[in-house]
Amino acid sequence: MRTKILLLIIISLLPAVVSLAAVNLEIYPAVTYGAGKGLMVLVPIGVWMWQRRSRGEMMRQAGLVRTSGSAGVGLGVIMAGAIIAGYYLIFRGQIEAGQVIGKLKSLGILEYYWVAAVYFSLGNAFLEEYYFRSFLVSEYMQVTDNKIYAAAANGLVFGVHHLAVLVTVVPFSFALGLSVCTAVAGFVWALLRARGVSIIDCYISHVMADLAVFYAGWQIIC
Fold first, then answer.
1. Looking at the predicted structure, is the pLDDT value of residue 1 above 80?
2. Separation CA 69–CA 156 (nearest Å)
3. Can you state the angle between helices 55-62 and 29-50, rounded to 10 degrees?
4. Which of 21, 57, 64, 123 is the 20 to 30 A CA-CA neighbour of 106?
5. Where do runs of H (alpha helix) occur along the chain?
6. How far, in Å, CA of 188 to CA of 69, rounded?
7. Is 83:213 a contact under the CB 8 Å cutoff?
8. How far from chain centre, in Å, is Cα 205?
9. Per-residue pLDDT for 21 more than 90?
10. What distances in angstroms separate CA 97 from CA 68, 172, 179, one per listed residue?
11. Is residue 73 exposed (0-12), middle (13-18) or buried (19+ Cβ within 10 Å)?
């Protein structure tokens, strides 16, 4: 059991290591980002195959169940509304545009801001839901039967993953606060998955939340 928990910790921190290397430290970001994301695709498949799960079991574990999507849209409206309200009520005028612009320039995406926004909101959100909620939640549930504990662990590593990026664009106090908010969102999505809600609903709400974040970012740099 100790070995399994250690391995689970390692694979849980993989996304944070990818973010640290590619975005924070900018160690050949085009290479480390792509390779890291590739690992995030392959690791769950490798683990499921090692566990000798059938294709049907993999799909059920991933949360690919039918849904109308209404739960995802409803949660997405709440999250996006909270993000935009938080920007205007708390963060507007508190974050200097220079640091944000500098990081976007160094990563080469400032001129393609909304192209990047669409990619991260659609593509990266999909990968994060696949890795954190389709894969990690089910792995945590093999260690503990307590859905709250499993969701809390998922939210924690999700927050750490984003902290590695946020400290490069905003002051640490803001980065920490935003990472806590991200961890709460991760907890909510993980709890929904642990209770059998479709990964599609988690993805829909994640996309809406990310678009709200990029809207707030655009207001900062404009």
1. no
2. 26
3. 120
4. 123
5. 2-19, 29-50, 55-62, 70-86, 97-106, 113-119, 125-128, 137-140, 147-166, 172-194, 199-221
6. 16
7. yes
8. 12
9. yes
10. 40, 15, 19
11. middle
Tokens of 1: 């059991």
| pLDDT above 90 as % of the chain | 81
Q: List, as own/partner pairs, every contact residues 110-114 make where C-beta atoms lie below 8 angstroms and the sequence separation is at least 24, other chains included.
A: 110/221, 113/214, 113/217, 113/218, 113/221, 114/214, 114/218
What is the reported pLDDT for 11? 96
The answer to whether 137 and 151 are in contact (CB under 8 A) is yes
Token pair, residue 193, equals 């998955």
Q: b/e string for 4-41 if b means 16 or more Cβ within 10 A? A: eeeebeebbebbbebbbbbbbeeeebeebbeebbebbe
Query: pTM for the complete prediction?
Result: 0.94
Q: Which of 115, 160, 166 is nearest to 13 (CA)?
A: 160
Q: Counting Cβ atoms within 10 Å, is residue 155 exposed (0-12), middle (13-18) or buried (19+)?
A: buried
